[in-house]
User: Fold Nuclease-related domain-containing protein from Fontibacillus panacisegetis.
Amino acid sequence: MNLLDPDNYNFYKFENEIKKGFDNILAYLLSILESQGIDKVISIIKASGIAVSFYEDTKNKEIFNKIIDTLLPLIKDDEKRKVNNLITESEIIEDIIAKFNQMRSAYFDKLGKEVDKYQVVSYLLSLERYLYGLSGNTDKSKNFNLKVALRDSAIESTGMILKFFMFNNYEFCGSNKFIEAQYLDISSKHIFFSTYWNEINDMIEYWKYSKVNILGEIHNKITFEISDNEFELNNIISNERFVNLREGWQMSAVGKVLNKESDYELSDELEKLTYLFSTLYFGTPTLEEKVENIKLSKWIKAYQLLINECKRFLATHARRNGYRIKNYCISKTKKMWKELYLKNGFSNIEFESIFNIFTFNNKSQDILDCPLIKVDDQFVLIPSLMIYADPARALSSNFLTRNSKLNFKGKGFEDRLKAGFKINKIKYSSLYKRVNDTEYECDVAFVMENDIFFVECKAHVQPYTTRQHANHLFKLYKETAQINRIADFFSNNPTLIKEQLTLDNDFQIENYHRILITTSMIGRPLEVNGVYIIDESSFNMFLSRTPPSLMLINEGAFKQHFTQKFDVYHGSITVNKIIDFLKSPPQIEILKSFYSKRVMKLDLFDICRHAKTNKTVYMGNEINDLDEDLLNKYYSEQILK
Assistant:
């Protein structure tokens, strides 16, 4: 993970250059070749997406080939070897994609043409049947983690499946067609193939934005090795930390209903946390900021409205006969959806924007982001998919995929930080100075011993996919320039600092430090351009002297145990403790221990990458010897007995 030169992560720029036409992207790459060399050119080509064709995209492939043909006569022999290696890797990846597509087509070709015409509705029905079956399993304690994994896999796969249908021009028709059960069984296999495809797609994203070694064939299979460990760990630990934080809030709710007869009681409890989750995702306590000219609070309401419709549908359709869309899914025309939204306080303009953004298309990330699926003149919701949806996560992913403007200042973010300083009696203040037409404003500066810490607060939406994490890291890198500009000015004008922090004139400032605090979770210790980057959750826990905790739930009893293994949480806050914490946040150190490199063996290739080898949520008597050894490293042995 090279955050000193993060151009690999600036893919939106490269994609936009391609949209301007071949002559433009060629001129851009030739200028990069002259100024920065062939390695940078190769990185840009990979990150732009033109090196690998997913769906036999001849346009991008033609651009790629023409660029290569232009480059080769201009470079030296050792540079040609690098370009030829890029070509080889591209061909290997495309060969795997082609073999996968052939494998999938061979399986579904056994369907007749008449049934093939209705593959889309057949899949939607099979998905609802499958998810409804998972919801009906009442053995919650024993199978909770497994059920969540199966649901997540099916939901994550569905977006890819629908885009596959769209690219291959499958008909989205048959909203009133009866489908026989045997064809639903066959159609459900799309979930298996799409789960497989997710592994291919994720590997390709790592190849595009970081470093992946493609090793020679062993037993007639290629092995991909993700060699940029820091980038991979940042992504998976960031995701894991965020999920764990949400689940920490949910654990008490789970405990209340573990022994009940219906999962829907759990759903009712979790709905109460929707607002809290939303403030966490978007980094704003009020949700008054606007996205696409609609307040975040109203976006949440709009999505929750769909969830509530699904709950009502399932409550009144406990017995569903005949495999038709209208019997198993919610199916309404656009006019009917509009009537529902207008009835619930939305304007005509708001509805049009919400409806367009909620409707699935070939640019959508997944089905939770855009849950309305157009079939004939109907817009269909999968009820058992939606009832456990997290509105904030779905919306944030949707907005990130659309590259919507989400740079919220987040006044409440700064207020929370200042409250932590006040409780710990740490002297703090905002800093401001205008020089001619130039403004210098530091969100918060605080004093510890004889050192000054400059803090910049940035509210970011939590990333999830590899692509989103790459883009997020690029944003963080760019934002270090802002705090450095401000810190440079004030550190050269110490009198201003003393005045605004009400320090004595004879106060001797020994050192200056720069911190960028983000509302999204980080997954690795980050220090970029002299700036420490940390997330609000970790930093606030440090200020409150609250170490990481282990949460256990068993037979409805909820227990939380805090580690005592980290000195940075013991005693008063000092400069050394702050620096030690920023250089190695304990939350990240602990979670890193839960992952290790593994070789995943798939039919078409093997992949060497980090995998989670220990659980982070324990329900019932699930702790095995491997888990116990790791937990004992950070927690008292007594709590596991």
About this structure: Residues 6-94 form one domain. The CA atoms of residues 178 and 324 lie 5 Å apart. The chain has three domains: 6-94, 113-187+273-401, 411-640.
